[in-house]
Amino acid sequence: MNEDNVKRPSIGMALLPIITAIAIFVVGIGILEYPAELMLLFAGVVFAIFAMVNGNSWDSIILLMGDKIKRALPAILILFSIGLLIGTWFIAGTIPFFIYYGLEIINPNYLYVLAFLVTAIVSTCVGTSWGSAGTIGVALMSIAQTMDISMAVTAGAVVSGAYFGDKLSPLSDTTNMSSLAAGANIYEHIKHMLYTAVPSSIVAIIVFFFVGLNIETNTTQLESIQIMIQSIDELFELNILLLIPAVIVIAGSIMKKSPLIVLFASSLTAMILALLIQNVSFGNVFASAVSGFNMDMIAETLPNLNEGVITEEIESLISGGGLYSMYNATFFVFVAFFFASALEKSQTLNVILERVIVFKNYRKSYLCVFADRVCRYQWDI
């Protein structure tokens, strides 16, 4: 199909796929609670069909999608690297190390505000929201689960702190890209973001602090925390050397090294520590890196392990990660880019936005004329 024959839709025709897509999202996701990825794919098909009806070829949509994915490839690779990092940190004992001492030190009433502050500091140091949320954030979520504290509020605190630090970090790729796109100095850019970031963070800290004060700690909850601490102590060899993978991430980010190289170096170090300190097999180390960590991998190294140490609670708490754990996120990225490419080729959004701008300018001109006539009338009087 010749791309020169591409037709521009009218405002009426442009509204049809937009309304259809909105209906798919509202009914499919909001009412029927179908997977968002599937609904996004259906909406993308609607726009793709509309684009082809107006003269676009299927190949042009796929080529545009390929260009978008090419630009986003570093972010996709970082997603996989974080999955690799979490899996290796679990089997090395790095995340269990954070959980163990977090349960011993952190007061449940201050967990929300600490989750915000800690992830904000780490994210500012390393320059990545995904990295801080995927490492220290995972440990904080595990602590919240053990303490029977709201996972939703804790996740909100972790994400808020991670993005706050990421936006204000001179090491952040998105912050650097924003300043480059605007033609501004990076530190001037950060200085102006402080005007909105600092007040919002102060409000967040106050809210998380007072919400945390309402947490009631009962005897049963304290007993479960102690059981968890004892279980981690029996399952893992806790050593100060387990902090090395975390130090590599922070040091590499401060030195402005490539995030992919830093994350891979940290994962490789964690794999070596798992072999040396936790005494796990090569096969289990690689399995944890690819498919995620589970308690059977560590139990094999402890033939005299007491029964009942590996409970259902600890299995759900200390497990996961791996490259496979990021497949859903990366699949969503691919579907989102297909939707964006089909939407762009259909030109529907451009047509509607242009009409809105014309209408806005018309209203503005009309009001100016009306105001001018009122002023003239009053002057004549």
Please characterize this protein's 3D structure.
The structure is a single chain. This protein is mainly α and 381 residues long. The chain has 18 helices and no strands. It has two domains: 3-56 and 347-380, no CATH class; 85-331, no CATH class. It is 78% helix and 0% strand. The longest helix has 35 residues, at 58-92.
Helix and strand topology:
Blueprint (H helix, E strand, L loop, with lengths): L10 H21 L4 H18 L4 H35 L1 H12 L5 H16 L2 H6 L1 H11 L4 H17 L5 H10 L3 H28 L5 H17 L8 H11 L4 H20 L3 H10 L3 H5 L12 H6 L9 H20 L1 H33 L1
Helix pairs in contact: 1-2, 1-18, 2-17, 3-13, 3-14, 3-17, 4-7, 4-11, 5-7, 5-8, 5-10, 7-8, 8-10, 12-13, 13-14
Keywords:
disordered C terminus; 381 residues
Instruction: Work out the helix count.
Output: 18
Biggest sheet overview: none
Task: Name the poorly predicted regions.
Answer: 377-381
Task: Categorize the overall geometry.
Answer: globular
Number of strands: 0
Mean pLDDT: 81
What percent of the residues sit in helical stretches (DSSP H or I)?
Answer: over 70%
Spatial extent as radius of gyration: 26 Å
Summarize the structure.
The protein is mainly alpha-helical and 381 residues long.
